Amino acid sequence: MFVATIILALRFNQTRIIYIVLFLMIGWATIAKIDDFQNLRLHSSLFFISQLAVICLFSFDQNKAVWGRHGLGRLLLLFIVFLINYRFNQSITLNQILEFKFVTLSSTANLSETFQVDMLVVTIGLIVLFARQLVKPNQMNANLWAIAFGLTIMHFGKFDSQIQMICYILFGVLLIHAVLSDSYQMAFSDELTGLAARRALLQSSISLGKKYTLAMLDVDHFKKFNDTYGHDVGDQVLRLVASKLDEVKGGGKAYRYGGEEFTIVFPNKSVNYAIPFLEQVRENIANYQMAIRNDDRPEEPQDGKSKRKKNTGGTKFVNVTISIGVAEREGELKDFD
């Protein structure tokens, strides 16, 4: 399972997953009672903390090349963490630190033997990973949090080796799922606008059936707008248009077709049904005043809306419009193209 994960990670350039897998493999090999790893006698609490730390660290890492100075640096980091586990696994000082108790717990609650340092570290680690998912939600971060939570249950639950082996297999499944989901997201989602990309549109066109309405949308005079205000402002316009298109009602699904062109598909709907919803989207975009982003323009939409109301003329606002062509599958119009 881990080898398959590494192969997929290499294929889809998810290199940070490789380093997480390498460290999880050490834990698996120890539980599997492979002699070379059993002889290391890794300290369970320290190794658990190390695994959690590696997951947290690489959740923030970028998918840089496996080879080269970045790859060597990450491998060196893993080696140092592993060396600490091996060199100090029977250190009296280290054991004293790991067994330090912040508060006295009742022995009847079966918590008196729990290493409270572990509890503190795992709390911080899970909060960091949860915050990471809130800030940058995606399947990869969600699955890394699930793996960290699983390691926590394994460590404090004191399960037998067979259950732990099953858990490591599930970790491999979660990592494979994360790699494939992340790669699918990159392939079928438009990075700039967040809408589904042209590839997703063509894929979904296969299952549209015999009745649907297709709308093509184009930002008016977009080249002139880019030449006047610059490509950064042009990107802002595309993101604005995309956000409004994504709010389309009536069962429409918005896609970015390419450049300043967008597509909305209404499955099982007629032209007459779709036009009022498209007209509403067109009006929403035309009536929206967009502030040209500058250094003091707020990132939050609500702050920006408040600032527009209080504007006294210091901020430059622009309006953009879109044109829409719409057709229904009927008569000679039977092919999606």
Automatic annotation (TrEMBL):
Query: What segments bear the compositional bias annotation Basic and acidic residues?
Result: 293-305
Q: What reaction(s) does this enzyme catalyze? A: 2 GTP = 3',3'-c-di-GMP + 2 diphosphate
Identify the enzyme class: transferase
Q: Where do the record's region annotations for Disordered lie?
A: 292-314
A Pfam entry, by short name? GGDEF
Cited NCBIfam families: GGDEF
Entry protein name = diguanylate cyclase
Q: Which organism is it from?
A: Psychrosphaera algicola
